[in-house]
Amino acid sequence: MFVNLTIIIIMKEVFIIMNAIKSTYSDKLTLDISSDLLAISEEPTEDTFAFTSQADPFVPIPNPDLAYLVTTSKISLSNIVNQAVVNSITDGFQTITFSSPMRKLGTNQINNWGVPPFTEDPKPETLISGSSPLTMQWELSRPSKIFGFELMPNLFGTFTYQVEFYAKSALAGSITRTITVPGPPIGPASQGARLFAAITDGPGFDRVVITSLSGNTLGFLVAQIRYQGCVTLCNPIIKETVTKGTEIPVTCCVNIPGYEVIDVSNDISARIIDTCCEIHEDFICPQFGRIPGVKTADVKIFAELQIPVTIRANGCTPITVPFTCYECVVFPINNIFVSCEIRNCEVVTVKDVVGSNFRIAPTIPGEPHCCVEGIASISAIVSACVMANSIDVIKCP
Question: Is the overall model pTM greater than 0.85, yes or no?
Fold first, then answer.
């Protein structure tokens, strides 16, 4: 039995009624679903998903799949002390400001959050709203092409929530989900929190409004707040185009029972999932630190690498076959542009994905070779509008 402590203090006369309510968090350790139920991933029939679109396009994202995770940044809650009350959260780049305070909960205070693929993690760090507001507004300091978070009502039962996504004061679209949260330890592990996320090609989401359509659910809990800070700007001045590249270490593992890797090729290829150009307000010089008034543009390229390998099964009849090892990676290319003003930054083309020094990764003697490692390099053509009188920081290497 889990009861909101504030309600007990203020309304002792309704203690018997509150016994039957059972909120989804506790100030004590929880009696969560057993570990064997965590393997159940059946979509509950009570869960419904609907959306409306006021802009073209407004595309909802129903579950935190791989494409959503690798193309967004998560604002961590780990730097917030448990039970602390906050009015905003930030990762130093994006800041989310709440219309009413939220409180940080520890991972051991959550009941029935849910499991992948419907949630990112079954035991996330969470924030809980106050017990009475039916509506809350979040302001984003930087417009985001993708924005989303997982949400769960603070009561066991079936409830409906709506999230409206705004861009420059205009409603871009909304997502409405009916969520079922069973009391612990009953119910399948797949029931619990659900994702409210969307993507747009417009100017980017800068505000969301969260509303309970089922009345008072003693507030709600949120986790895994993610965004993609790629913003379309305007008023170009001078268009510049540059080509830059980067390289990253890569490890890729093949998990096929009975087979091991016996050879790997440097002739890798890549499927580009997404690209993002991020503008940072102050340039950070390695020698002199932050330089106010100078902006930089950084690029991220999200790709799925395809690495040719040869695998072999050593059974009664040895079998050797070609195979492709797949690995999702992020290529960062920093300081593409340095200027007083940078606008309309975008990746025009990605080219020249090259592998080098790929080899079979060391393993424990006697164990099969399942992984390969090496270096993957990539180059991109990036364009942006920059000021003609940009500051040239020649003292910085």
Answer: no
